[in-house]
Amino acid sequence: MTDELPRTDAAADSVGDTQFAAGEPLLRIEGVAKRFGTFRAVDGVSLDIKSGEFFALLGPSGCGKTTLLRMLAGFEAPDQGRILLGGKDIAQALPHERPINMMFQNYALFPHLAVRDNIAFGLKRAGMARADIATRVAEMVALVKLDGLEKRKPDQLSGGQRQRVALARALARRPQLLLLDEPLAALDKKLRESTQGELMELQRRLGMTFIIVTHDQEEAMTMASRIGVMRDGKLAQVASPRELYEAPRSRWIAEFVGDINLFDGESKLRDGHRLVIGTRDAGALVVAEPREPVGAGKFSVAIRPEKVKLSRRGPVREAGHETAINQLDGVIADVCYLGGTTTYKVKLDAGGMLQASVANSARLDVDAYGLNQPVVAWFTPDDCVVLPS
Amino acid sequence: MRKISRLSRFNIASLALGLAFLYLPILILVIYSFNASRLVTVWGGWSLRWYHEFFNDRAMIEAAWMSLRVAVSSATIATLIGTLAALALSRGERFRGRTLFSGMLYAPLVMPEVITGLSLLLLFVALNAERGFWTVTIAHATLTMCFVAVVVQSRLGSLDRSLEEAAMDLGCDPVQAFVAVTLPLIAPAIVAGWMLAFTLSLDDLVIASFTTGPGSATLPIRIYSEVRLGVKPEINAICTLVIALIAVVIIIASLASKLSSSRGESAAPL
Hints:
The complex is a heterodimer of chains A (389) and B (270).
Chain A lengths: L3 H10 L13 E10 L2 E11 L4 E5 L6 H9 L6 E6 L2 E2 L10 E4 L11 H11 L4 H14 L15 H14 L4 E5 L7 H18 L2 E6 L2 H7 L2 E6 L2 E6 L1 H6 L4 H6 L4 E11 L2 E6 L3 E6 L9 E6 L5 E3 L14 E12 L3 E8 L4 E7 L14 E6 L4 E5 L1
Parallel strand pairs in A: 3-8, 3-9, 6-7, 7-8
Antiparallel strand pairs in A: 1-2, 1-4, 4-5, 9-10, 11-12, 11-14, 12-13, 14-20, 15-19, 16-17, 16-19, 17-18
Helix pairs in contact in A: 3-4, 3-5, 4-5
Chain B lengths: L8 H24 L16 H7 L2 H34 L6 H13 L2 H14 L6 H26 L2 H9 L4 H30 L2 H6 L7 H10 L4 H35 L3
Helix pairs in contact in B: 1-11, 2-11, 3-6, 3-8, 3-10, 4-6, 6-8, 7-8, 8-11
């Protein structure tokens, strides 16, 4: 264990270097599978994670993200596949043989040990000299801002403080890879948001590689540089937050990440780079052709609510601007004021329901729409995503 | 506790009645153990005469010593085996019939003592074992290990498994993780289990009388046979001493388990 420490020290010193170094990934997961009885918890997952990345595994409960994380930590052994850390297969190694540490969802602080001894626990096991342990503990305490609480027992700390102790304890050994299992799930909203920022700060400063497991898509989008969405034990999509949101690969991902309007239909005709898709609930929609060309058949047209604009009379058409615009008539069926935005549900004359999210850019409600008010909802073909049904 | 401070009169009355029902007989016994009179039912003033008598009664002292030795050894054996059983049932791999084993652990708790005693007697006779200190000790360990296992198992059940995982994650092999984390956290339950086993063994008359042999009577057996010939005030003195011993042990046991459960709460998330 001790021989790993200098190497990660070097990594910590090289803060400011390009985070995504070229070459070998730090962690390579190859065709990993795990079954519990007949249930395939993780089903053939392959993934590369580069050094210095902040990676999020996102998915609903039971999708296998925690099992995958536990296999990285060594609490479960994969039935199939390899887990390479720095080129070495660690799939069957025991937890204490891996230069990986984990922050547990419920923090798992040792209740019989003071904060200081909790943080020093792993250092003592690594056979570090007493004086070095004291220095490192002091460093960690300062890092997570726990000064003055070193002698407290975990049950004398608030939820946020416990979370920091758990983080300090996991970071103390300077692991090559830090795993975080729903690290903010137990905190209230305000604290969660500020802690998100602190975690990102810390990760950048230490230049460490973080893998976080979360079911909260907002949390994943805020913190991670890349997100892997898991469903039924498989990786459904691995992408940057923006790509995941704006170009989801499937209907399921589009619905899981953020709110979305979906209209099922069939491709009717092609006009240059435009496709016309006839939908049952919203009539004919003009959409931009996806990057990967699609043939004829059944599709879903997906539009994010904030891409939908509302107006009383329809879009202002600039002279010479010939962009085909989708215009749908309807009446306001529901208004939901959220502070920063207002979400309107528009009952379309064509039959369907369309959600539009409008920023409340003015303090007075001059722009607001009332219930049963007729409106025109419009959006451009580029705002639509075509997904296979 | 805040609610108890505002008791209604009815509550106070029912509490007083209940406590009187429980403790009045014991109180009378304790008071009469300091009776100077030779007759149990006649008060003859305060005296330590019967305590003096007891300490000069060789047969009684021997029986008390026997009881103590049996209680300590059977409690120790029961704690060892019971703790191991609890660990196997709550920490081991899920094996076939685990629920059955778990349930079987509770059976001796509800089994009539006569049946336990008789079956053990039959076993010892079949094995041709010489009945005496060891047969009583083994019989008591058999009964009390279930209590220990139940106490330790419930503690282990409330213990967060991720604590052991965290220890392993931080560099412990499974044995080190157990010694560094699990053992300190279940220690109060183990101590409480030992105390429980100790008092149960000290109390027991039925199983002991089935499994003991000539010349190795425990204190309850001795007292019972004396009482059949008429209650001597000396018995009151012995009983008072036993009550004092058991009270001390039970207080320590409950303090230990209280300590254990308050630690348990802190182990839970938030």
